[in-house]
Amino acid sequence: MGGAHRLRCASPACLLLAFLLAMPGLAAGLTRRYTFNVTMATVTRLCTTKSIPTVNGQFPGPKLTVREGDRLVITVHNHIANNVTFHWHGVRQVRSAWADGPAYITQCPMRPGQSYVYRFRVVGQRGTLWWHAHFSWLRATLYGPIVILPPRGVPYPFPKPYREVPLMLGEWFNADPEAVIKQALRTGGGPNVSDAYTFNGLPGTTYNCSSGKQSDTFRLRVRPGRTYMLRLINAALNDELFFAVANHTLTVVQADASYVKPFAATTLVISPGQTMDVLLTAATNPSSTAFAIAVAPYTNTVGTFDNTTAHAVLEYALQSPAAVRNLPPPPLPRYNDTGAVTNFSSRFRSLASARYPARVPLNVDRHFFFAVGLGADPCKSPVNGTCQAPNNTRFAASINNVSFVMPKTSLLQAHYQRRYGGVLAANFPAAPLRKFNYTGTPPNNTFVTHGTRVVPLSFNTTVEVVLQDTSIQGAESHPLHLHGYDFHVVGTGFGNYDAANDTARYNLVDPVQRNTISVPTAGWVAIRFVADNPGVWIMHCHFDVHLSWGLSMAWLVNDGPLPNQKLPPPPSDIPSCS
């Protein structure tokens, strides 16, 4: 992609790209190369020793460090018995859709023994993102952080921290996660839940067989008076998480690789897929030599969930295993405290400064209303004569009552070749075909329809989507992730969305910019983006169980008229589905 003097475009995102490419040191970013060898490795957690998929034998996987404007070249070799792909979660992938990674959306998976090189540039983003497998439930152990530093000579818009620490929050299963989801899909019921939450792969002191040693407990050593930046990432498969550090206040400065107006909080909420950079200043005269760091779930599900609390350690001086096992925990909200979640989430605002403006789309070309939630399928192929969802049905999930069917080939390849027949239908409904009281009493018929249906968009279309939770199978929040784009969160509320009244309360001045947002329990959220990145982009719930049940759809963004607005040809090494 050329310099800004050759970049002709009019959309806000494209103008931002032109501005960024004109910045000194950014247009000529470095090329950074990494190699991912996907192999099985033996690890022990909670007294369970098992073989898990890893990248380069590491769990979590290696950290990728880039500067804004750099190009990444990541060579992946698949040495395990599963198919696999990798997604660079939150990276815009401007005209590099072939590198986005979701299986059967932008590529066919790498089969055992195959390789693929992901090539893309990081433009207009800074902060923390992450990478993970995007095939079945392999991301349970195949994940790692992406640290995006500002260009050289460009400071943070906050005091530079003494140290920066990626902290990935995850889930540990004693069982094989692939076996867990296969069993759930076979029986039609909910999957078995995880056995522990983890900090950088370690379960900490609250679980059986966790001793408090450094081999099973994450410890962050700090110096009095120093400020640390925690690069938080929720890599859990199926759980939103509360996060707190006993006796310490955190300052939030970034969300999903976009700066926000700093604000202080004692308890955070972070959904699967989301990232958050927070500043922690160590006390000058601490009241203790160590403090507990805690995570616990937030959920309103009517099903089972991992209702445990995990602890890590913030230590001012080295602690014995016995000492860290007895640290008092920080107070956390109850697992279903939606009020605490709302109070925290409502505080996010874009920085909206001269250097980092909030380019909010003010005029909308196309409006969409998506009812998001669970549903049911009839009991086919019962196990022992029954299916395990309510009323002898099978669990399903949908958007506008369409449960997404994963194709057998890459949607992006089909789009590039203009061979849509038998692959996809460009008729995803812009609103539910059957309206009902979305957050009230569910309709009698909760069966979903199925299909590989997409929304076609002309290049540069300004889009508004209202994401409405439903009460079918119980109201609960859904963290929706949009590939290929950031979006502005212009409004949110509880109950059923009312365009006549709710639109007037939109924030069009400094709304937060994200790539993953939780649809509130029994509520709605409105997002806006400009479709200026050609390709096929999936939008899906980042609870993997809901993704497995079909809670996703795809946007098909057509080429623009100019050469730099068109999808390039596929790489020569892209895996084949045949």
Automatic annotation (TrEMBL):
Q: Which domain of life is it from?
A: Eukaryota
Q: What is this protein called?
A: Uncharacterized protein
Species lineage: Eukaryota, Viridiplantae, Streptophyta, Embryophyta, Tracheophyta
